[in-house]
Amino acid sequence: MNEAIERYHDGLAPEDRATCGRLAGAIERGLPSADGKVWHGHPVWFLEGNPIVGYAKRKDAVRLLFWSGRSFDEPELHPEGTFQAAGVRFTAVDQVDDEALARWLRKAADIQWDYKNIVKRKGRLERLK
C-alpha cells in the first residue's frame, strides 16, 4: 500500500482505521493494476489516470465512493454529487460486505466514465467502457 495512504490511516480513530484498512485491502486485491495515492486529502485509486474508487472519513462515517458508481445498477450505492459518482457509508467495520465490495470493484474496472478529461471537455463526461 502507498505510504501516504498508510499515514492517512494512522491519523484515524481505531474503528475507522479498521474500516479503511479493510476497504484498502479489498481495493488492492480487486484492482491490482490500480494506482493508489492520497488525492485531495483522501485515498483514491486510479486506472490509467482515471479516478475509480476512494474513501474518506466523514464526520459520521467512512464514505466509500465509486466515481462511476451510478452506472453499476447497485441499489446499495447512493448518488453523490452531480456526475456519475455513487457511494456507501460505514459506521463500523462489520458493515462492510466483502462480496458486495468485490462485485462493485469488478464493475468499477469494467464501467468507467472519463473523469481524467472532464476539464478538457468542459464538464462533460464520456463513457469509456
Task: Describe the 3D structure.
The chain is of the alpha+beta class and 129 residues long. Helices cover 29% and strands 24% of the residues. It has helices at residues 3-10, 14-30, 98-110, and strands at residues 35-39, 42-47, 50-57, 62-66, 78-79, 86-90. A hairpin with a 2-residue loop joins strand 1 (35-39) and strand 2 (42-47). Helix 2 (14-30) crosses helix 3. It is globular, with a radius of gyration of 14 Å.
Can you tag this structure with a few keywords?
129 residues; alpha+beta; Aspartate Aminotransferase, domain 1; six-stranded antiparallel β-sheet; 3 helices; 6 strands; 29% helix
Summed over residues and divided by their number, the pLDDT gives a mean of 93
| Main pleated-sheet profile | 6 strands, antiparallel
Order of helices and strands: HHEEEEEEH
Oligomer state equals single chain
The tally of helices reads: 3
Strand content: 15-25%
| Net shape | globular
Q: Which parts are unreliable, with pLDDT below 50 for 5 consecutive residues or more?
A: none
**SS class:** alpha+beta
Looking at CATH, which topology would you report?
A: Aspartate Aminotransferase, domain 1
| Whole-number tally of structural domains | 1
What percent of the residues sit in helical stretches (DSSP H or I)?
25-40%
* Gyration radius from CA atoms, angstroms: 14 Å
Number of strands: 6
